[in-house]
Amino acid sequence: MVPSFATRARISRNASFQEHSGGWRGGSSRSRLDRRIRNPRATAAYGAGSVRCVCALPPPGISPLAWDAGVSTVVGAASIVWVKLWTGLARRDKMKPQVSRKVVHTTAAPLFMILWPFFTNRPCARLFAAAVPMLQAVRLAAAGLSGDPENNDSSSNELVKAISRSGKASETLDGPLKYSLAIVLITVVEWRTSVVGLIAMMQMAVGDGMADLVGRQFGKHKWRKGGEKSMEGSAAFVSGSFLASVAMIQWFHHFGLLSVTPTEAAARAAAISFASAAVELFPPRLVGDDNISVPVTALVLGRLLFGK
Ligand SMILES: Nc1ccn([C@@H]2O[C@H](COP(=O)(O)OP(=O)(O)OP(=O)(O)O)[C@@H](O)[C@H]2O)c(=O)n1
Ligand SMILES: C/C(=C\CO)CCC[C@H](C)CCC[C@H](C)CCCC(C)C
Is the overall model pTM greater than 0.95, yes or no? Predict the structure, then answer.
């Protein structure tokens, strides 16, 4: 019998996997757990050295391919609705475009990652997931190439006005497009069982987003005389990205996708948040766009600290 989603989550909570050996640390409960997850679909392995996942199977009668395609369609639709919700507020002058832009920046990646456990265990499920930010990247590219809002009436205008800093269409080809493509890459390369990918995504989205949202509003103590970036902004970067990382680790651990617990990862996640916040202070002419420099810093440091 295929266990229900809730049962599967319970199994994975009880089960403590050893990420590197692929073995169990379940002690006396081992044989019971083994019996309960004997269903081959529930124990699809990712290969040597990875965690075995016992979550997000398609219900009986639905093929894994159809399930992944369905989840991808629902998440893709949700991503369009989410972006439209915030760009709509900016269009109706209910919110400044710079705020709606950073709210989307802060929330899109974490919301997307929260939905990852609902894909199947098949390795190619990551491609169905990556199709969602890819779709957004295509929308942004189309909006960026469609010309400035005052010169045309295309439906991309709302996106351009709310997502670009200056209202210039070409700007969606910069930060927003890089942000979406960084998510595509992390999704494909670091899919689900990588604590490092998860932390890197939280630095880029929540850290950088919170620094802007809080720094603009409350940033009184600037790092440099006459500079823009503030200590309040950096504090928001570190605390926001750290808390989001720990919460996300707990979420993936709950589904049996990560063996490491939030407590075990906390010190290393904090170190990555501090380093990423420091890199965010450098001007783009030195380190490039922060949608690239921040996640790359987090990935490199994460590899060193977590060892994989
Ligand atoms: N550590 C930080 C980072 C940002 N800010 C505030 O947020 C604003 C925008 O920050 P910046 O990272 O330069 O954002 P943008 O370049 O506009 O956007 P993006 O990072 O998406 O390119 C700054 O002017 C500043 O008021 C801050 O106070 N402290
Ligand atoms: C303004 C942005 C960056 C500038 O630094 C962010 C642009 C975000 C994209 C328009 C949308 C990205 C979509 C997500 C990857 C998927 C979200 C899914 C979810 C269910 C909301």
Answer: no
